[in-house]
Write a structure and sequence with these properties.
This protein folds into two domains: 6-174 and 355-383, Glycogen Phosphorylase B (Rossmann fold); 177-353, Rossmann fold (3-Layer(aba) Sandwich). It contains 15 helices and 13 strands. The chain has helices at 19-32, 48-55, 70-84, 94-106, 128-144, 153-163, 210-222, 238-247, 263-268, 284-291, 304-307, 322-334, 336-353, 356-369, 378-383; strands spanning 6-12, 37-43, 59-62, 88-92, 110-115, 147-150, 168-170, 196-201, 227-232, 254-258, 272-275, 296-299, 315-317.
């Protein structure tokens, strides 16, 4: 693709403010700051993502999926793209991948997707339409879209099975440090406080395995550790998890904060962040905690071992059980100086390798490698 200024439109759900949405926001704002890119977004839900993008000066079209059928959404996406005339349409998640890629093809634009994680739900024969959607999504990845971008090498291996070897490229997530700098400790030498403040940040869904972490914390409390845990985030499992906490008589130790706007301040005040998922791509909260100098205890899944330098920058948990996390938490609590040293190395690693500016340049390079810009419409050609 030539050196002309590119117009890139991201198509994203925006129903939540979670890792994928944070990364989309980070990337779009970084692209928006470049002279070589015009970045815009189509968001399928009014919410935090749409509001923050607008505040950042990015042009946003909101098409409420709760008020439109899939066909209506497709028509409106296509109409918006026809008006904006993008060179590249960049999609996220199954529904947006399908709608966005077909709409991009209809206007002769190039199309790519980002794969933020593996599917969270197994196929249920009682819901055959889910299988059709997944099959159509994979068809779009291989036959319509030019590239499938994974956020980890593990996800890339998975994506190559349906998208094809040549279609898959890995670009890891990154963070915008401008919003985090004010929360970084000046001396970065904070040790374990009393009571010990642990935290979990994320959607309350099965794959995150918050229940496993609750049980591990219960084990620590039974051993006499003065532990408290903040669970920051929301989701369908909240009431179930709150009941589990109540049943285990831990209501004075574990607190559900729901969605919080000041999440970075809350993370910065933790003694350690816990990621106890069965699977992850590359969690944004991991990068944020590392930049903030907060010790991390995390499942050894997805890109996490690589980002944590195989345990040099945080505590990796291979044994994804209550016992495994209880042991890892105990190590961090009992060896605060060692944990703090790892956190300092983690901060330096993020500064060096995971900046939003470098990430945006990688995406621009990818966009330009895709081929020729979109075909101009007939009236434009006739005027020349």
């Amino acid at each position: 693709m030539s050196s002309k200024k590119l117009t890139v439109v991201h198509v994203v759900s925006g129903d939540l403010w979670a890792g994928a949405e944070v990364q989309v926001y980070t990337l779009l704002t970084a692209l928006h700051s470049l002279q070589s890119i015009t970045a815009k977004a189509i968001v399928l839900n009014q919410g935090t993502l749409a509001n923050r993008l607008k505040k950042a000066g990015i042009e946003v079209e909101v098409i409420e999926e709760s008020k439109n059928s899939t066909l209506e959404i497709y028509k409106k996406v296509k109409n918006t793209l026809t008006h904006w005339k993008p060179d590249v349409v960049h999609t996220h998640r199954e529904k947006e991948n399908i709608i966005g890629s077909f709409a991009a093809k209809a206007i002769n634009a190039l199309s790519v997707r980002t794969m933020h994680g593996a599917p969270e739900h197994k196929f249920n024969w009682k819901k055959p339409h889910k299988l059709i959607i997944r099959a159509l999504d994979r068809f779009c990845a291989k036959q319509i879209q030019q590239k499938c971008i994974s956020v980890s090498t593990e996800l890339a291996t998975y994506a190559k099975k349906f998208a094809g070897e040549k279609h898959v490229v890995t670009i890891e997530n990154a963070i915008d440090a401008t919003e985090l700098k004010k929360y970084v400790s000046e001396t970065n030498d904070k040790l374990i406080s009393q009571p010990i403040k642990l935290g979990i940040v994320g959607r309350l869904v099965p794959i995150k395995r918050i229940d496993r972490c609750i049980n591990a914390i219960k084990s620590l409390i039974d051993k006499g550790y003065p532990v408290q845990c903040e669970i920051i985030g929301d989701g369908p499992l909240r009431s179930t998890l709150e009941l589990l906490v109540k049943e285990k008589k831990m209501s004075h130790n574990i607190f559900f904060r729901g969605h919080c706007e000041n999440v970075h301040r809350l993370i910065a005040n933790l003694d350690a962040l816990i990621i106890c998922s069965d699977h992850e791509g590359l969690p944004m909260v991991l990068l944020e905690a590392m930049y903030l100098g907060v010790p991390v205890i995390a499942s050894a899944v997805g890109a996490i071992p690589s980002v944590l330098s195989d345990g040099a920058c945080g505590e990796l948990v291979e044994d994804l059980t209550e016992t495994g996390f209880s042991i890892a938490l105990g190590k961090v609590i009992e060896s605060p100086e060692k944990s703090r040293h790892k956190a300092q190395l983690a901060h330096a690693r993020i500064v060096k390798h995971y900046s939003a500016e470098d990430n945006a340049r990688k995406y621009v390079s990818l966009y330009r490698s895709l081929g020729q810009p979109r075909v101009q419409d007939n009236c434009e050609l006739n005027r020349q």
